[in-house]
Amino acid sequence: MKLIVSTHQGVLYNEEVDYVVVHNADGEFAILKEHIPVIAVMDEGYVKMVKATEEFYIVITNGILEFHDNVASVLAQEAHLGKDKEEAKQQLVDFRKQRLDENRKEQVDFTQKEKELREHLRNSKAGQL
Questions:
Q1: Are 73 and 85 spatial neighbours (Cβ–Cβ below 8 Å)?
Q2: In angstroms, rounded to a whole number, what is the distance separating the alpha carbons of residues 39 and 117?
Q3: End-to-end CA distance of the chain, in Å?
Q4: Which residues of 50-85 are buried (b: 16+ CB within 10 A; e: fewer)?
Q5: Alpha-carbon span 5 to 47, nearest angstrom
Q6: Can you tell me the distance from the alpha carbon of 87 to that of 81, in angstroms, rounded to the nearest whole number?
Q7: What's the whole-model pTM score?
Q8: Which domains does the chain have, with CATH numbers?
Q9: What is the 3-state secondary structure (H, E, C) of the chain?
Q10: Are 77 and 88 in contact (CB under 8 A)?
Q11: Which of 32, 68, 80, 112 is the most buried (most CB within 10 A)?
């Protein structure tokens, strides 16, 4: 069976696997080759991929999984790959922290620019006759 995991940034994973285990708010379930079609919502969860003797995990945030015709497709807001759940979750935490720091810098820069604009308007005496 094939597993495809995509985010708005592009395809994170697109390979053949033996089976997957999906964990979401409802619990866990496995999908094997020739499984009946299924759709699952994943607010926060993971997909465990088993390929021969290797296991990989993809932590999913705000995603949906669809399985039919031996293709499992996951579309997620955020997804991070790791050798185990903890590594994948840590990558998610690190990514969120980095994004939060970037947003804070942008907010500070915006606030500073707004102050400069007000000062320039006062100095130019715009609106005064």
A1: no
A2: 51
A3: 75
A4: eeeeeebbbbbbebebebeeeebbbbbebbbbbeee
A5: 10
A6: 8
A7: 0.69
A8: 2-124 (2.60.15.10)
A9: CEEEEEECCEEEEEEECCEEEEEECCEEEEEECCCCCEEEEEEEEEEEEEECCEEEEEEEEEEEEEEECCEEEEEEEEEEEECCHHHHHHHHHHHHHHHHHHHHHHHHHHHHHHHHHHHHHHHHCCCCC
A10: no
A11: 80
| β 10-16/54-68 pair status | unpaired
What is the pLDDT tens value at each position of the chain, 129 positions in all?
Answer: 999 999 998 999 999 999 999 999 889 999 999 999 999 999 888 999 999 889 999 989 899 999 999 999 999 998 888 887 787 778 777 877 887 887 777 666 677 788 888 888 888 877 676
Q: Which residue has the tokens 């395809």?
A: 11
